[in-house]
Amino acid sequence: xxxxxFRYHPDPVRSGSIVESEKKCKSCGQSRGYIxxxxxxxxxDFDDDICPWCxxxxxxxxxxxAEFVDLNGFRDGVPQSAIEEISQRxxx
Length: 92
Description:
Layout: H1 12-15, E1 18-20, E2 34-36, H2 52-56, H3 59-64, H4 80-89
Antiparallel strand pairs: 1-2
């Protein structure tokens, strides 16, 4: 299974945000061979527990209200649709 594509983070493996791992995802419960290692802004504490597929399809955001990019980093005028895609469905 190929990794999901992220418009605003085209190579998350190279950047180190996603690494090979057999850990199970806290969102879907599956071990898919990769795990997210970046920050997750939410009430629950995550330590390399979310797979890239649950980030890409928004299910990690829906389940845990997780955001993967600090919302304070956006400038005025950025379209809301881009903010949502970057913060809720893109690895940080």
